[in-house]
Amino acid sequence: MIAVASLAAAASAFAQNAKFTASRTFEFDPDKSGTAVAYWDRTAGELDSSGNTRFGLRLEKNAPINANVSVGCVLDGLKGVAVLNTDTFSFDMQDPNNAQDGPRFNVSYTLPDGTTGFSFVGGSANAAQSAGQEAGWRHYTLSVSNPAHAFPPIPAGAVLEQVVFICDNPGKYVIDNIGFRNGVAGKPGSSN
Fold first, then answer.
1. pLDDT recorded at residue 117
2. Could you give the count of Cα atoms lying within 13 Å of 5 in the half-sphere of its Cβ?
3. Is 190 exposed, middle or buried (0-12, 13-18, 19+ CB in 10 A)?
4. 81, 116, 144, 165: which could form a disulfide with 154 (CB 3.0–4.6 Å)?
C-alpha cells in the first residue's frame, strides 16, 4: 500500500512538472521536393532569460497548401503525462504573421477507459494572443479544454502519447518559447 501511494505521488509530481524537449525537428517531404525547412537557429529567436542566446525554430513550407509537406518538432518527454483541465500549449512567433493559420499542436492521447484520442490544438488564428517578450513577436496560448482552441477538447485525465508541433500551411515562420503547462523550450534541450 505504501509503495502504491509513493508511486502515485511520484506520478502526480511528474504530471505537475512536465519537462520536455523540442530538439527533434522534422521535415516531412516524401516527394523530395526540397520545399521543407526545420531547424533551430542560434540567432533567430528572442533573447533567453540568461541573456546569452537567441535560439529560434525556423519552419518553412515553401510549397502550395495542398502539397504533401509539413515541418515542425516533436515534444519528447510528455508521453505518460496526465492532462489537467487547466493545461495550455503556447509558443511565440515572430511577426509579421502569415495570412495562413500558422502552427498547431497535434496531440494523441489515451482516455481513462483505454480508448485513444487525437486533437488539433491551434493553429495560431485560434489562439489567445498577447505581446511577445520582444518587439516584433506575438505570444500564442491554447487551452486544451477550450473548444475554440482544441479540436476536439482534450478531457482532463487523458494521458498524453505524443505531441507534435507542426506547420503544414505555406510560409516562413520563426518560433520561440514552445510551452506546455509550466515548461518552456526556448532552444534545443530540456524545457525549463
1. 98
2. 2
3. middle
4. 144
Who contacts 27 (Cβ-Cβ below 8 Å, separation ≥6)? 36, 37, 38, 71
CA–CA dist 122, 126 (Å, integer): 6
Cis, peptide link before residue 96, omega less than 30° from 0: yes
Q: Cis omega before residue 147 (within 30°)?
A: no
Residue 129 Cα distances to 85, 137, 138, 140, 143, angstroms:
20, 10, 7, 5, 12
Secondary structure of residue 24 in the 3-state scheme: strand
In this structure, are residues 35 and 27 in contact, taking their beta carbons and an 8 Å threshold? no
pTM of the model: 0.88
Q: Which domains does the chain have, with CATH numbers?
A: 2-185 (2.60.120)
